[in-house]
Structure formats: C-alpha cells, structure tokens
Fold this protein.
Amino acid sequence: MKTTVLLFLFLISSGLNFVFSQQKIETKKVSSTLSKHGITIQDDYAWLENTTEKEVADWVTLQNNISEEKLSELVRNYNFSFKIKDYDYLSTNGLPTKKGKYFYNTYRIDKNKPGVLYYRESLNDLGKPLVDPFDVYKDANVVLSGYFPSKNTKYLAFKISPNGSDRQEIKFKDFANKKYLDDVLTDVKFSNVAWNGDRGIFYKKNSNKEFFEKDSTYQLYYHKIGDIQSKDQLVFDTSKSKANFIFFTKQNKLFVVETSEDETTNNYYYTTIENEQFQFNNFIKDDKTNLNLLNIINDKCYFSDEKYPWGNISYIDINNRTENTVLIPQVYSHLLIGTTFLENYIICKYNNMGKYYMSVYDYSGKFIRKFEAPHNMDFQIRFYDEKTNELFVTFYSYTISSLNYKLNITTGANDIYFNDFIQPKPTLFPFNYFETKTITYKSRDNKDIPIVIIHKKGIELNGNNPTLLRAYGGFGSVSSPNYDTGLLHFMEKGGVYAFAQIRGGGEKGKNWHKDGKGLKKINSINDFVDAAEFLIREKYTNPNKLAINGGSHGGLVVGAAMTQRPDLFKVVISEMGRLDMASLDKYTSGIHHFDEYGNPNNKEEFQSMLLYSPYHTIKEDVNYPTCLIITSENDDRVPPFQSYKFAARLQNRIAQKNPIFLKVNKVAGHSGNISSYEKRVKQQSEFYSFIWEYLNN
C-alpha cells in the first residue's frame, strides 16, 4: 500500500498579517501494539521502523523535500550563512595537538571535501599533509574521526566513518615513506585505538548483522601490522555476559575496565603485552564504588572516588592493593572536570559557577601553582614543553575564539603565544560586547539550578527578546562553552542565549547526575521547564519569543518539555533525539543505557519512562509549537525512526495547526552533516534562520 499523501496549504496569521505555509503530510496508520508488564501501548507508526522498505524511504523523501524547500527559503531570507562564513574567517584558531613526536592540525583545504590531517615537527614549521580522507575513499561524505600515532611514531592509525555512523574503519600510514598500508580493519565501533609499541593495535569489533539491531560490541581484538583482519587475535570477550568495557595501554601493559550489563559492578584487569601472550590479572574485583579511572602510571592507579562527589584524586597500587590513598582532596562546590598527568606534575582543571582555573600539584599532592582563565573562558591544555617547563593552552568561550597562551609552571608567567603560522588577529567583538553570567534559578522542588545566560550588553530585557534555551542533562556530562559563529550573529541581532545545567548532567558533581537519572529522570525535564518559566518571569523573553533546542539526550529533554508544557514555547528543535523510550532495549545502543534511563524490563522503571517519553505523551487535542525535528539516516546510536514516528504523530492530528518539519540528513550519523565546511555552514544557517523566522513573525 502506498502512503496516502494529502497536500494542502494552511495559513497562520498574526496581527501584522504575516503568513506561513506548510505542505502537510498525512501519514497512514497501521494498527500495532506493544504489551509489557500488563500495559498495552498503541503504536500506529511502528511501520516507520522498517527503514529498508521503499514505502518508508519514499515517506522520508517527501518529508525532506518539504523541509528543504522551507529551510532553503529561510536561508535566502536571512544573512546567517554570510555572517557565519565571515565570522569564521575572522576568528582565531587554537594550537595544534601534540601526540608523540609531532604536532597535528586538521584543515579544510577544499570547503566541499572532508578536512585533511596535517602534521609538523615543530610549532614553527609549515604543516605537511598526512591523511586526506577524500584521497583514500574518493567520497566527500567520509569523516576522519580519530588518529593515533604508534609509540615511536613509526605508523599512524586513523579511524574513518564512511557514512557518518558509529561503525567505522581503521587504516594505517607509514611515516617514513608516507604511504598507506594495505591493512584495513572494518566493523570497528565505540573503540579507541591502543598501540602495542609499533607492532600492532587493540580495537573493539562489532558483530551486528542488521544496521539498527541491538548493539553487539563485546569483543576486543589485537591486530599485528601487516596481517589481514581475519588473522587478528581475540583478546577479551564479553559476548556472554553482555558487559561493556573500555581499554587502553600504558607502558608494557593493556588495561581493561569491564562494567556489568546492569552497570552496578566493575572489574579491572591488566596483562603484559610485549610477548603478545595475553593473560589477564583481575586486580580490582567486583567493585561497586563506581571509581572514575583517571590514569595508571608506574603501577599506580589514579582515580576519582565516588565518596567525593565534586572530584578528588586518590590512588592504589595495582600489585598490592591496600586502602585508597587520597592524594588531592575535593574542593567543595568546585568541580574537578579534567586532569592532565605530566612527568612531574598533575594538572587539575576546575569550574566554579562559570569560572575556570587550573591547579598544579606534584605527585606527593603538594600544591604548586594556580592559573585562572582570562575572561571566565574555558580552556584545553594542548601540550607541555619539558625544557622550558611551560604549558601551552588554548582558551575560548561562547563569544571569544581561541586565545593561545604559554604558562610557566616554575615562575607563573603567562604570555599570549604567536608564531609564523599562528598569527594575531583582532577579536571579532570587544571582550565586553556580550554579557555572560552564570546564575541559579529555583526548581519546583527548591533546588538551585545553574544557568548560563548571554546577550549583547545593554539590550533592554523587556520580556520581548528572541531567546534560545538549550540543555543536555544526561550521563553526568559537564557542559562547556562552544564557540559558535551562528550563535554570535543571533545574539548580535538582539537574541538571548541560555544553557540550563539541569540535573542528570554533572555540573554540580556526581550527585547532580544521580538526581536526574533512572527513576529520577523526570527531574531533568522538570528543571528544563522551570528554566523556561524563570526566563519568562525575569523578563528575558515570553512564550512567543522562546525557542528550545537539544541534541541526543537533550533532544529527549526538549521533546518531553514540549509535550509537558507546550504553552511555554514558540519553537522546538530536537536533534537526533531519543524520543521513544518504550523501545529503548530494542535497538542499537539503548541496552547500554539502562542505568541512565531505566530498564524497560522492570515494571516500575518502564512505567516511569512512559511518563516522560515524548512520543507517548503527545495529546490529540493540543496544537504544539512549531517544530523542526532533525535526524540522520545512518544514526546507529539513536535510530532515526524515533524522530520519524514522533514527527508523524505530531503531524497527523486535527488539532495541530503550527507546522511540524522533519529533516533527515543523508549519508550522515549522530553528529549530523559535518563532512565538509559547506555542509556545516548549511546546517548552522538553516538552524538559526529557522529560529529567527518563527520567533520574529
């Protein structure tokens, strides 16, 4: 049966007689039910999960044609695309990353092709091309997703995503003759690359047969350089227990941290690797304290202890474990968000209500020095020069592009850094052109929720400002500033930006995450709704001027907030959102996230998930805000048909008068269209043009 399509125009008019139109798609309903724990759920759009069917593909094409037509019109109407390119050109670049002997940067040589990896032997050298994905694949959609030099920089292993999905390939290049090796490793998923000297690598292999089936990345393999993949040695296997694991190499050992399927227990293993005979020693057994492993140096295991929710550094000896030794205590209300281990120093990165700084300690735990970030900027430590005892650091913020500094640990001197290829540029705007503040608002249960608010200095906060509110709020993730030239232009035009650090994230430590996961996941959504009410109450905006946006877990948050309180929002943009909680355990990586969302096979947890599941909380008699629902056809982390079903159900109701657009990125995965500069600019300009149109008309 072909999809029945009804095309018509409908009008929405304001007092100023602005008119919008959308071709509305009527999607067929096929009766289907899901029964679990005595609960029966009607799902009329389950047929859209069959993505290989021509009928589904035709439906997606129709949705895309309508969305692309509208988005192209809006991009033509506004100047975001021009400003994004202009501001990108005028912005500064960060320092290269140093790995082993060399310094690495990725450059966009052709704006319509993937970025090219360059390397240089010293900071002041002209970079040389090393890996050009287009040269390897002759395909402009491939993405270089990681690169890993061997111990002595004899070889470079690099990961490629041919279609945007998480299922990737590993190839190799010889540094001496600059030739690609014949070695190709396929079906690599959720994997880093760990070298055994210059001899070979460890990697995780996926064994899924169907693209969107439950994830099966349970095997760790060892590949010797020069072998074909079929000869690779299986080193670690959790296929029976369904346990997840991470791995890395340090000195002459391979370490594996195994997490049980129910995410309650960790086991820590190591094996020597030089003789390529892998016999594992379980040096921490059945640990339920949820240690956050930081590093292993000279057989000392450094970790952050769950007893100290703001972050500390403790250690144990992996060969003779006694009690944990606290090396660097937690600093209450100051979040430890990163650690860098140098030969003689440990660098701790902290955040306290939007103010970033680093503290330097030695390995006895003695405090050496503190460096505060300028202008409350975030930062990344790029590399350390042992000869001069200097840290090279890139600072950045929402509104200021990269500022590169060198910080002397011995003297405390801090100097901005330039060279022949990293030259000074004037800032796009004066440092005080935008006002950035991190404050708190009260949640409905009287918790202080941090929120970052940014706007042009001096604008009148009269309750009528176009405002973009974002959040993530999951997996203990700590939000950080993202320099975005599209956002800069949005704020330059008078927009207000806000990011709510809701529970479920990690911005206030480990307990902040605990209070927004599992049976408490509803706190994340409630906090986000309360953020919207705060912005309205404090006269930043009003419901006709408020847009909300989130991606992945954030897509769940904004979808659930919209179905809970549609009266608060004018525009909703969900990107790669987890929108159907009832099918969490049915597809892709959902089986790894029971601890975060709940286990659908547990009745209490299943009922809790249904209470906020965006797809299941759509009401028939509500006209929901204007929506742009974005997904990617090759997203094997959050399946695209969750967005298909959500869009179809929103569209197919008599009460829905505001337009609902679905955009499906082709040959792309969870990160969207990022394979070329032009695609990234198109993605950004569509996003901000859409918001500006519907918030101002």
